[in-house]
Design a protein that fits this description.
Elements: H1 8-18, H2 23-66, E1 76-85, E2 90-95, E3 101-106, E4 111-116, E5 121-128, E6 132-137, E7 142-147, E8 151-157, E9 162-167, E10 172-177, E11 191-198, E12 203-210, E13 212-213, E14 218-223, E15 229-234, E16 239-245, E17 253-260, E18 265-271, E19 276-281, E20 286-291, E21 296-302, E22 307-312, E23 317-322, E24 327-332, E25 338-343, E26 348-353, E27 359-364, E28 369-375, E29 380-387, E30 392-399, E31 403-410, E32 415-423
Antiparallel strand pairs: 1-32, 2-3, 3-4, 4-5, 5-11, 6-7, 8-9, 9-10, 10-13, 11-12, 14-15, 15-16, 16-17, 18-19, 19-20, 20-21, 22-23, 23-24, 24-25, 26-27, 27-28, 28-29, 30-31, 31-32
């Protein structure tokens, strides 16, 4: 009935034509039919709305269930170990936040290897273009001819979008944008050239990354949880650089503060909850406590000799490796007092906590072992001292519900050794 404009009487006549019996009766029946239909549709709408809300709630419950934390465990049983080939002078290793990729900093090879956790294969190689510079001989304590682009340590920021890498002989750091491997070298900031080989896709490419000057011989890099600030310990400058980060604009960070410390700094851990940073003064016997609002040293905690690496749990405890005396310690952050300690094999270097903070892994450089400790309320219990030839130095862990893997890099061997443990 296109373009029909019926008067009310005409409409009634039309209805009577449709229902030729008693018009009023048929009209009442028709009107009742319309009302019933509307009621039915209204009910159906409510039903479907309720059903949709119920299904949405069920989906939310299901989503919540999928975020349940990993199964609790109190024991680690060593299972197997696997050796992976890396490159010369592997100095440190770092997993991304999801544990799918591990990055190995190969200092002497001037490269970074990207390993796939599940296949244990190197999928990408990032190789720096070398420029002549000077390094440091840690045995003779003398400056030596070398190259600038030697990666030492690394740190992810902005949900793994940027990998920050310290360059031992360049007196600075570089940010690598993992989701966009390109920076315009014509911009008004210094840059370093990287070559990338994608073994999986069988491609080769090159690009530039920004270079940011920090201090002489940069080592450990750490970030605040909100990815707003980055800290870098500068070994030969006896200071720590504080950078303000911006992931949307190259060079992605700028130095806003330099914190002088009493001697050679190395390890850094950041306490976001209490707005503090802790700096291990490896050239002395202290850990400097920095106020993250003023970026100034508030106090110094007296500790044993040569604290190298530090990590923190969520219960106010700081764990430290003491390189020269072969020990690890647990410190109460409120009192600054050492609660307990334990002997390790010689020259403990990097340490890392298990995800449940119940176990501590320690690389022992000249001891050629990885020591595994259980953390008790008032003591350490050594569980394993596993052979790891080639001067182990860096370590990071991967975990799922059933196993824990400790990925250890060997500096002299230029390899990784993956130790697998069963959880119980």
């Amino acid at each position: 009935m296109e373009n029909c404009n019926f008067s009310p009487i005409s409409q009634l006549r039309y209805l009577n034509f449709i229902f030729p019996q008693n018009f009023l009766m048929n009209f009442r029946q028709f009107f009742g039919f319309i009302c019933a239909s509307l009621a039915m549709f209204a009910f159906a709408g409510c039903y479907f709305t309720d059903a949709q809300e119920i299904m949405t709630a069920e989906r939310k419950i299901g989503q919540q269930d999928t975020t349940i934390q990993a199964k609790p465990y109190s024991k680690l049983i060593f299972d197997t170990s696997t050796i992976l080939s890396s490159s010369a002078g592997t100095k440190s290793v770092l997993f991304n936040s999801t544990g799918t990729k591990l990055y190995a900093m190969n200092l002497e090879a001037m490269s970074i290897y990207e390993f796939d956790q599940s296949t244990k294969k190197a999928e990408k190689v990032f190789k720096f273009k070398g420029t002549k510079g000077f390094g440091w001989d840690y045995v003779t304590h003398q400056s030596i001819p070398s190259f600038e682009e030697k990666p030492v340590e690394a740190c992810f920021s902005h949900d793994d979008k940027i990998l920050w890498v310290s360059l031992h002989n360049a007196a600075g750091i570089v940010p690598i944008k993992m989701d966009e491997l390109y920076v315009d070298s014509s911009k008004n900031f210094k840059s370093k050239k990287l070559f990338v080989v994608d073994k999986k896709e069988k491609t080769r490419d090159s690009f530039f990354v920004p270079f940011i000057k920090t201090g002489k011989t940069p080592k450990v890099i750490a970030r605040t949880a909100d990815s707003k600030h980055l800290l870098v310990s500068n070994w030969h400058s006896n200071n720590v650089s504080v950078l303000e980060m911006n992931d949307t604009l190259a060079p992605y960070g700028k130095v806003i503060k330099t914190i002088p410390v009493s001697a050679i700094p190395r390890g850094i851990v950041i306490d976001d909850k209490n707005q503090k940073s802790y700096i291990a003064i490896m050239g002395g016997r202290t850990i400097s406590v920095v106020n993250n609002n003023t970026w100034k040293v508030e106090r110094n905690l007296e500790v044993a000799s040569t604290p190298r690496h530090i990590v923190m749990d969520t219960s106010g405890h700081l764990f430290v490796s003491y390189n020269s005396i072969g020990k690890i310690g647990c410190i109460d952050l409120v009192t600054g007092k050492t609660l307990f300690s334990a002997a390790t094999n010689t020259q403990p270097r990097t340490i890392v906590l298990s995800k449940n903070h119940k176990f501590l892994f320690v690389t022992c450089y000249t001891g050629n072992t990885v020591d595994v400790f259980k953390i008790n309320k008032d003591s350490f219990t050594k569980l394993y001292s596993l052979e790891c030839k080639g001067k182990p130095v860096g370590v990071d862990v991967f975990e799922d519900d059933d196993k824990l893997e400790a990925w250890v890099c060997n500096y002299v061997g230029g390899s990784l050794k993956v130790f697998s443990f069963r959880k119980k």
